[in-house]
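[job 4471] stage=fold_predict status=RUNNING
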Amino acid sequence: MSETKSSAQFEKEARALLEPVLERRAAGEKISPKERLAIPPQAMPAQDPAERGKNIAEVALGYTESQARLEAERCLSCKNGPCVEGCPVKVPIPRFIAAMQEGDFKAAAVIIKETNLLPAVCGRVCPQEKQCQAECTVGKSLKDPGKSVAIGRLERFAADWERVNGKTGVPPVKAPTGKKVAVIGSGPAGLTVAADTAREGHEVTVFEAFHKPGGVMVYGIPEFRLPKAIVEAEVDILKKMGVKLTANFLVGRTRTIPEFLKEDHFDAVFIGTGAGLPKFLGCPGENYVGVSSANEYLTRANLMKAYDTGRAATPMLRSEIAAVIGGGNVAMDAARMALRLGAREVHVIYRRTREEMPARAEEVEHAMEEGIVFDFLRSPVQFHGDEGGRLTGMELRQFSLGPPDASGRRSPVPVPDSAYTFACDTAIIALGNESNPLISRTTAGLSTDKRGRILAGEDQKTSLDRVYAGGDIVLGAATVILAMGEGRRAAAAINRLLQ
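[job 4471] inference complete, writing structure tokens
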């Protein structure tokens, strides 16, 4: 497989294709669209599957310099920029890729940060194939969306190049306005609001319930997909912009939103607390030791570093056979983490087929390469345990696919008399999350829907004056970049309010 090649091999192959293009550029010649379409897409170097399941290091290694420039040369520089319309934060994609074609990676990073202060994060975890790359003219011209320009990988390269080479700059901040903004939650939405309001000169304080900032980027997404040092580096930029970060601060307990507004004299409040209340199956036996939510499992493994068994300050049950129930990105993260925590065998239990899985194709492929077993068209109906209350297995029911449901995916239909026992000692429930009701219960007049999500208008304004909300607390469980998009809209509204 191409992914087992070393970065040096990828660099050598890309360099051979790039050099003629650079020579023509130096001579002032133009590369025609037809020639650009003929340039092969660049695969991402990655750790060998046989090795990466044994360590916590990042799986995808990033483009080499020649790969990045060659991939950038595939861009047609469309004047109408359809890719930009597919980006929730409207990164100026043709402009930053044009800078990369010239080899000016610093300029590329600066251009990206005009609208996205977390490019190293977004380049790694955003579903570009469903957003900017889905609109790419190259993919449409080749009639293969998988051959669109790899915008996310180029964004990652520019951000990493800037950081590794010590070229990271701090966005300019306007003169102090004397206005104060409180941001509740330091996830993608909250950090975006903090950045965009701080740029305007407002005094911004971010309140985080955990002991580290970053939200889902720190407690949810594993180290092997998003190294925490990268999140810390991007949060440090906010600190240099003057943003204050207050950890171990649970809004609704330590302080309430009415108190922020009336007693602490904040001029605006943004709620970006995410969706941290895990869903469960509701079937018998979910209280056995060995059954947990993916939320808890990943928080222990990521934020509390349970994989560092010699120094971790949190207990983690050692697994022999682990089963993850669900088919999204969180399920992939939990399954791949279970493997790295020493499980001899890991299964993903999903009640539809691979075609219906909401997880990113790349994450599913990586999991399969690492030896994780996928049991499709299955779902638990009961958990079994021993006399000591420890999980020993589950009863699985088989399904077939019926007609599409409201989401467009085919509905799973139980197969009569198909239940059987599956032995395992760990079960991780990854069925999504709902909103924690703490803030809504302690904030009179804050409107929510029946699922507890805060209701917000187009400008992310809530039912309360000077209070805005965005990200998963409004959307339900979504993606980093969609949360950032809501954060940008909220920040723009707050800046208009405080002018």
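[job 4471] summary: The chain has a mean pLDDT of 94.
[job 4471] exit 0
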